[in-house]
Amino acid sequence: MSSVKSPFPGMDPYLERPSGWRGVHTRLIVVISNLINESLPDNFAVQIEGRLRVLDQSMRGIQSDIIPDLFLKRHDPIRAAQMDAVAIAHAVEIKPIFVETIEERWLEIVDQDNQQVVTTIEILSPFNKRGDGYDQFEKKRKEVVAAGSSWLEIDLLRAGKRPFSILSDADYYAMMVRTHPREWLAWPMMLEERLLTIGVPLSEGYDDIPLNLQTAIDNVYRDGRYARTVRYDEHTPTPVLTAAKQTWVAEQITKWQQAA
Q1: What is the DSSP-derived secondary structure letter of residue 50?
Q2: Which of 68, 69, 72, 67 is nearest to 95 (CA)?
Q3: Considering only CA atoms, which of 213, 210, 212, 255 is closest in space to residue 232?
Q4: Considering the entire predicted model, what is its pTM?
Q5: What's the Cα-to-Cα distance from 58 to each of 18, 69, 126, 240, rounded to whole Å?
Q6: Where are the beta strands (DSSP E) in the chain?
Q7: What is the band of 35 on the pLDDT scale with cuts at 50, 70, 90?
Q8: Which sequence spans correspond to the domains of the chain?
Q9: Sign, Cα dihedral of 224, 225, 228, 233
Q10: Up-side HSE of residue 21: CA atoms within 13 Å toward CB?
Q11: Is the model's pLDDT at 68 over the cut of 60?
Q12: Residues 124 and 18: beta-carbon distance below 8 Å
């Protein structure tokens, strides 16, 4: 496959597959950071932030990594005696205790003059859109806005909960909460259309800077070499598309394959 462009004019729905979203999300964080830097005034800087969240019992099974973190040891006297008889050094049996974790990453725009975070930018993952993960994401949005920072969230996943019913009919969306003056703005986007150029708010007195989401996802697709790895012979990730959208998706893939 020689083409490095996606079959789709906007978001590629095949990139939404949960098993591969962590890689897409990581690339989006870096690409969007670089695109913002191109227009950012000199006294601001974009920082990539992150944390490792350990899941409690109610949150387990939500797109997580499982890593052995702690160990229990057990002493077996019979086994030890057998080892002593043949001069093998005594060993202690260990058993890993597996801890489920979620690695979260987001962007912060910082005013270098006073080291204040002026804008937090979140690119949603499946964890942010269901169960306790959704509730924690809602809580974080409220806390960031209450602290006086602006907020920008970008949702390129069709599956999962949405914060407002007005966004439920859109396949994708971006939403801004501006601090000065206080206002909530949204950009609904559809699968069949190109992704939009949205505004990134800064401090009071500064104009919003443009962020071309289509350029971002195109760069991610190219740099991740997804033209070679995505299985377009499989069904699109859930939720199931309408019959009309399924037909449209099949047409785009056929045109793309014929042009390659």
Answers
A1: E
A2: 72
A3: 255
A4: 0.82
A5: 19, 19, 16, 27
A6: 44-54, 65-74, 93-111, 116-123, 150-155, 172-178, 183-189, 197-200, 209-212
A7: very high
A8: 13-68+101-259
A9: positive
A10: 25
A11: no
A12: no
Alpha carbon distances (Å) from 3 to 54, 236, 255, 259, 260 = 40, 20, 12, 8, 6
Name the one residue in this structure whose structure tokens are 């974790």: 101
Residue 84 has pLDDT above 90, yes or no: no
Calpha distance 240→244 (Å, rounded): 11
Structure tokens at 194: 């190109």
The sign of the CA dihedral 128, 131, 136, 139 is positive
Greater pLDDT, 60 or 238: 238
Listed range (73-77, 111-115, 195-199, 254-258) with the worst mean pLDDT: 73-77
**Alpha-carbon separation of residue 45 from 28, 32, 37, 202, 241 (angstroms):** 17, 13, 7, 11, 40
C-alpha 163/C-alpha 154 separation (Å) is 12
**pLDDT tens digits along 225-249:** 999 999 999 999 999 999 999 999 9
- Is the pLDDT score of 100 beyond 80? no
Instruction: Please tell me the distance from the alpha carbon of residue 132 to that of residue 148, in angstroms, as a whole number.
Output: 25
- The CA R_g of the chain, rounded to the nearest whole Å, is 23
Rounded to whole angstroms, how far apart are CA atoms 11 and 235? Answer: 16
CB count in 10 Å sphere of residue 166: 11
Contact yes or no for 161/135 (Cβ under 8 A): no
Q: For residue 116, which of 211, 186, 45 has the smallest C-alpha distance?
A: 45
Percentages helix, strand, coil for the chain, rounded to the nearest 5? 35, 30, 35
Say how far apart CA 185 and CA 163 lie, in whole Å.
13
